[in-house]
Amino acid sequence: MKAVMRDELAAPRIVDRSTFQAELDALRVREKAHSKEGDAIAAARRRLPMVEVDGATAFIGERGAVTLLDAFEGRRMLIAYYFMWHTGHPAPEQCEGCTFYTSQVRELSFIHSRDVTYATFCQGPYEENVRYRNFMGGDTLVLCPTRLARDPLGGTPGRHDAHRLLPATSIQGLRDLLDNETWCRGDG
Amino acid sequence: MATSTEKGKEPGKGNLPKNTPPIVSPQEWEAARQQLLVKEKALTRSRDALAAERRRMPWMAVEKKYEFEGPKGKVSLLDLFEGRRQLIVYRAFFEPGVFGWPDHACRGCSLGADQVSHLAHLNARDTTLVYASRAPQKDIERLKARMGWKMPWFTMTDSFDTDFGVNEWHGHNAFIHDGDKVFRTYFINNRGDEAMGSVWSYLDLTALGRQEEWEDSPEGYPQTPRYKWWNWHDNYGAEASPDPKWVRVSDVGEAAFRKRDTEAKA
B131 is in which domain, residue-wise? Predict the structure, then answer.
């Protein structure tokens, strides 16, 4: 066991319980202000305008060919995470950052109960993606595109209402996904 | 009373809420997003500054010898570190008298447990996360198996909960040790707990932070370059130091997005 050397760390003062509590209470004021600012920003996100995207954009998922609208799985909102996929490369050569992030995504039943679906989008082929997901032990839905759209956000408006219901913050993920240059590689 | 329609409402199929924002063009949407992004970034920076303040908190010496029950019998607070430098203890409510007992832990604590991310990354920064409750180990073992939770989970046997502000409500206590001396370094509770679960939320709570070079920490704190210490959760044991290939890949990635940011600002 490597001991922490206080000299080496130039560690802070060692204090008694009441001094510690007083310092804690002082910093708590700033902590709470930060929480409230976070709430205010989330409120502003809910008031952002929305942009219509093409709900008919095609993907491959667990059930075969699906549309972006299908990816909602009947829920009102969708959060799309774009995972950088290196087609044809083995598991140890897939993106460590995306993998790190995805290993922080855990139980989804709570957000499902709030009418939100979470899905991972990446370059195909689907069989490679899902093999990696299962290998790493994740359970987020994986979708990959069947055709590659240059800029679906500026394209044909969809025919359904549901994609209007993508909250703006979710569209950010989707926009990153659909705007990403890697989207334009492959069979598109 | 709810109507049958309301009861049977399928997700995503009901009427839209009133007062939804306007539908705009992609350009207008992007402009609105960029405007809000200024605030988003300020909040991120303010979180970094807050974590830097936490790292400058004084430390409280833990003088009392606490005892916990673990899967292998009695252990001390120092044992909970599992040989790592830092420890985070979350007090979860699971004991007789708590709603859900004995099948379940408290609903809020259970939601929290469900969002605990893969602990390999936290462990790689010399930090251990444990849960602690009043329930006996046999009940904890059953609960973990039922819910699929993997974190170490101990039984409190003494005044640990009262002494660390978690006897009536949940909370995360952070500790560090120097040899056999243990210090309390921070405490998060109330709504602070709702943000806990990601690797970053835990590291930002600790005395040493993320241990990355960009951080504003006291002189001499352990720091390594960002990105480079990341690994796949099943590969930390196999690789003692960063894989040179990953170092190159992350350097190229960082250079690319910094260039994009610079160009965007130009």
Answer: 60-205
Give the closest of B40, B61, B177 to A4, CB-based.
Answer: B177
Q: What is the mean pLDDT of residues B148-159?
A: 97
**Cα B182 from Cα B160, distance rounded (Å):** 14
CB B58 to CB A8 under 8 A?
no
| Residue among B216, B138, B222, B125 nearest B174 (CA) | B125
A58-184 to CATH, choices 3.40.50, 3.30.70, 3.40.30, 1.10.3470: 3.40.30
**pLDDT at A112 exceeding the cut of 70:** yes
Rounded Cα distance between B23 and B21, Å, is 7
Question: Where exactly are the structural domains of chain A?
Answer: 6-46, 58-184
Confidence of residue B11 (pLDDT cuts 50, 70, 90): low
Chain A contact for B57 (CB, 8 A cutoff): yes
Distance between alpha carbon A174 and the CA centroid of its chain, in Å? Answer: 9
Do both B233 and B199 map to the same domain?
no
Written as one string, the DSSP assignment of B106-160 is -HHHHHHHHT---HHHHHHTTEEEEEEESS-HHHHHHHHHHHT--S-EEEE-SSH
Q: Verify that B133 and B170 share a domain, yes or no.
A: yes
Q: Which residue of A has its CA nearest to B186?
A: A24
Q: Among A54-68, A91-105, B3-17, which is the least confidently predicted range?
A: B3-17
